Structures are given as C-alpha cells and as structure tokens.
Amino acid sequence: MKPPDDRRARGPTPPVPDAPVSRWPTVSEGSVEPHGIFDLQTLARRSPRTGRIGTYKVLRMAPWVNVIALTPERDVVLIRQYRHGVDAVTLEIPGGLVDPDEAPEAAALRELAEETGYAGPAVRRLGEVEPNPAIQDNVCSTWLVEGARLAGAPRPDDGEHIDVELHPLARVPQLLRDGTIRHALVVAAFQHLWLQRADLTA
Q1: Among 3.90.79.10, 3.40.50.720, 3.40.640.10, 3.40.30.10, what is the CATH number of 64-200?
Q2: Whole-angstrom distance, CA of residue 90 vs CA of residue 180
Q3: Pairing relationship of beta strands 33-35 and 75-83 according to DSSP bridges
Q4: Quick one: which of 41, 43, 49, 42 has its CA closest to 26?
Q5: At residue 153, does pLDDT exceed 90?
Q6: Minimal CA–CA distance to 81: which of 192, 178, 186?
Q7: pLDDT in tens, 171-202
Q8: Residue 3 above 70 pLDDT?
C-alpha cells in the first residue's frame, strides 16, 4: 500500500525565499544614553533584502536571572510585589539583575536571599531566554535551588516591598492557567523546569 503524501496532507508550503534571512550590517552606531537600568542606543542598519538603511533603537541591558526555589516539602518560594509597568501587584519568582563581574549563579543565590531570606545547598541552571530580542540585547537565565530553607530575614532594596509566599509546586499550573502568574519570564522559567525535570512535573 502506498504511504500517504505528507506534503499534500499539510497543505501548501511557504514560498522559497531568494536568499535566507541573515544579520543586518551595522552602518553606524549612535552614542549610548544611560537611563538607569538600561542604556539606549540608536543604530543605523542596512536591510540585506532591500539595501535600504533604517534606524533602530536598542536597549543595552545587563543579564537577568530568576530563581525557582523549592523547599524540602516541594513548595515553591514565590514573591508578591507591585510593578510600575502594569500598575498592579504581581505574583512571581525571585529574580533581578546580574551585577558587573558577577556570575549568574551567584546572582541567582543573592537575589533569592535578598528578596526572600531563603538559601539552598546548590543551584542548577535550567535554561535561558531572550526577554525581547526586538529591542533588547540581554538574556534571562533560570536557576533551580532545591532544598531551600529560610536562612535569614529578607533584605529588599529601598524601592521594593515584597511579600514572600510558599505555594505547592503542584498548584503552579493552575496559577498559570487562571492568570494569577502572568509575568512572561516566570511562565518561561516553569516551562524550563518541566522540560529539564520530568520528576517535578505537576
């Protein structure tokens, strides 16, 4: 029996491009304008397809980290804090900027301790994403801390007001489904967790 034609089953295929997508050459770089947690730079780049030069804004930013910390009871350490961008209180995992000359894993443990007071015996990298490659040049890596325990008082920054909460890891999928957790980087972090650790799948 002749096997089915998979191409016909999938329908029409996209047209073949004249040339593959490639990087756009930088024609000129504007000065870097500091704006606190990010620098703004204007770049002139040439389209390989049309040859036209356009100007584009890029945010130069430090790397970010976020941390999934699990207690021995398989509770996840979450934080609730106000976010100016959305003018709302959000439920997230701990995270923040990597300081200059700081290793990402050290930044993950530091942010966990500062925002929650929790610490763990070891940290493991789960994955990395580009938060918004259209306008940002940084990455966000996710780290897993198992066996996390309360080791001291939180030390939030002056601009932070954080409530620390413990939620069963098994409840996290529902928090994602019902929109209680909406932060895109936090959603991606749990996806990394479940891809890397099937034994922790709720």
Answers
A1: 3.90.79.10
A2: 8
A3: unpaired
A4: 43
A5: yes
A6: 186
A7: 999 999 999 999 999 999 999 999 999 898 76
A8: no
